[in-house]
TrEMBL record:
It comes from Pedobacter hiemivivus. Pfam families: DinB_2. Keywords: Hydrolase. This is Putative metal-dependent hydrolase. Residues 34-162 form the DinB-like domain. GO terms for molecular function: hydrolase activity. The keyword Hydrolase applies. InterPro entries: DinB-like, DinB/YfiT-like. It comes from the Bacteria.
Length: 171
C-alpha cells in the first residue's frame, strides 16, 4: 500500500478485504496519536506541502470528513439510496473551529467516532454491504463496501502526509 498516492479502489469485496478495511478504520485514531506526538505549536502549524493544509488543518479535516462519512453510512443503512450532501472541504478547513480548537480535540473525536463506526461495520449483515447512497456531486451510487475501502485509505493517506513531513523535517 502506498497511501500517499492516488486512491486505487478495490474492484470487489471479500471477507478478507472487509476485515482489512474495518481494521484500518478501527486503528486510524491510534495512527493520528502517533502523527502529532511531541509536536509543538509551530510544527503543528507547518503545511505538509507548500500551499497545502497545516498539520492542524489536516487532522481537523479528517474529523470533518469522517463525521460526514459516518452520517452517510447511517443514512445508507436506514434509507433507500439516500442522496447525501456534499460539502466544500476547503472552506470547512478555514472555519473558526479549525483555526481555534486544539488539534487533540479532533484526535479525541476520532477515537470516539471510529469506535462507533468500526463497531457498526463489524456488525453489518451480508446484504448491507451492497446498500448505496447517491453522491450528487460525483453523480454516483456508492456502495457501503466501497466507501469503507475509500475511508480506510483516506485516514491512512492523511496520516502519511504528516508522517512524511516529520521524516523530511527530522522531527
Ligand atoms: Ni481528505
Amino acid at each position: 500500500m502506498y497511501p500517499n498516492g492516488r486512491f486505487v479502489p478495490a474492484v470487489k469485496y471479500s471477507p478478507n478485504n472487509i476485515a482489512s478495511w474495518i481494521g484500518g478504520i478501527r486503528s486510524a485514531p491510534l495512527l493520528f496519536d502517533y502523527c502529532i506526538e511531541n509536536l509543538d505549536e509551530g510544527q503543528l502549524n507547518t503545511t505538509y506541502r507548500p500551499g497545502g493544509w497545516s498539520i492542524i488543518q489536516v487532522v481537523h479535516h479528517v474529523a470533518d470528513s469522517h463525521m460526514n462519512a459516518y452520517i452517510r453510512l447511517k443514512l445508507a443503512l436506514t434509507e433507500e439510496k439516500p442522496t447525501i450532501s456534499p460539502y466544500d472541504e476547503n472552506l470547512w478547513a478555514e472555519l473558526s473551529d479549525v483555526k481555534l480548537v486544539p488539534v487533540n480535540v479532533s484526535i479525541t473525536l476520532l477515537h470516539a467516532l471510529h469506535s462507533r463506526w468500526a463497531t457498526l461495520l463489524e456488525n453489518l449483515k451480508e446484504e448491507d454491504w451492497t446498500r448505496t447512497y447517491y453522491h450528487p456531486g460525483n453523480k454516483e451510487y456508492m456502495p457501503i463496501w466501497q466507501m469503507t475501502n475509500q475511508y480506510s485509505w483516506h485516514g491512512a493517506h492523511h496520516a502519511e502526509q504528516i508522517i512524511s513531513l516529520r521524516k523530511r523535517m527530522g522531527w
